[in-house]
Amino acid sequence: MLNRLHVAADAIVVTIAYLLACVFQFVVLPNPIVPLTWWDYIKFLAYIIPVYLALYAIFHLYQPKRVMGRRLEIANIVKANLVGLALHVAILYILRYEHFSRQILFAWFPIINTAGMVLERILVRCALRYARRSGFNQKHILVVGYSRAAEGFITRVWANPQWGYKIQGILDDTLEKGACYKTIPVIGTLNDLEPLLAGNQLDEIVITLSLNEYSKLERIVTVCEKSGVHTKFVPDYNNIIPTKPYTEDLLGMPVVHIRHVPLLGLGNRLMKRTMDIVGSLLAIILFSPVMLVTAVLIKATSKGPLIYCQERVGLHNRPFKMYKFRSMEVQKPQDEKSKWTTPGDPRVTKVGKVIRKTSIDELPQLFNVLKGEMSLVGPRPERPFFVEKFKEEIPRYMIKHQVRPGITGWAQVNGYRGDTSIRKRIDCDLYYIENWTLGFDFKILVLTVFKGFINKNAY
Description:
Helix content: 40-55%
GO molecular function: phosphotransferase activity, for other substituted phosphate groups
Transmembrane segments: 7-29, 41-62, 74-95, 107-124, 277-298
Number of domains: 3
Membrane topology: Multi-pass membrane protein
Organism: Cuneatibacter caecimuris
Keywords: Membrane, Transferase, Transmembrane, Transmembrane helix
Order of helices and strands: HHHHHEHEEEHEHEEEHEEHHHEHEHHH
Strand content: 5-15%
Radius of gyration: 29 Å
Structural class: alpha/beta
């Protein structure tokens, strides 16, 4: 019912947006040139409305809003409207409507329609949240099994009443009846599941068995499916598998990959490598005056080599020499291998303080990118001494070496540079590795320009 109302509301918004675009173009603007009649424009609604509604469905805009993020929904609206615009242009070209107003096509309608869709969904969300907080439009849920997964699920639902989930209770064989977690009581054992389902008062079952109870899973699923109640499974090993697991079908057997790495695919690797080569060449040309001035200042103010080569660990755990403009006095190899730079470090030269703060010292790494040892975007490479140290202390640390290291990365644009949390840095690196797209790389490069060059944690 809600979906039908939503589709109808979207159809109304699309219609109003299109008519307003026509009014702006032919009524509000002075002296419009109207080579086509109003009817020529109005009859396009017969095409526009069904096409845009289909696109909104394709881009998941009619999925339940209980847990869909607002940003994701807005992003999907923009994507759907851009695809709609492309289809609109194609149709006009095929039908040879050369006199169709370009202002309506590229400005008024896309802007008004996107704004209208966003406003409509904000209003729908507000209405749904108010209704759910008031006790309406609720989904009654039973949690089966007490575990870390159960605690995580209940905590999230308990903290977000606007989702409209009402947890009736927990069934578990290890806890006493009446015990509570976040005000949710244990109302029985696993054997009580079938009688409870017979009452037909539940909308969903969430199975959250602990690892040592997975032997009971098949029986519980059988009971749930026999009742016809929608059933979900939240695994107790969710800290091991990624949020969006990558699965494959092995002749009817589902195989879940512990880590989904898009860059293991040949096509993705080729796209990223092409971007690295083109991007690094353009950056070398663009920053060549800066690098020339930096080279002169380094040679004029301190003794030692211009370029500092430091061993780092890269793709597939292979060591390589990473290039940087020298920003410190020449030191013993053993000291530079195992020491972090600290605030007020006397080893840093006067020029070094400036180029480290502004990340100019990293520019020679563009040549590492050309050689294929690094990428423009990726996890920052670390020295072998610290790799050996961190791989024992930080779970999943070595996963970062499944892709090429980068000059900048998701961790760096989120502020995790220099002397900051290694664990949070690794979390960002893993998110990047699992969610890589070419668009994500461009986003990181843009963010680097605006907030990644100046490093407050550089000493």
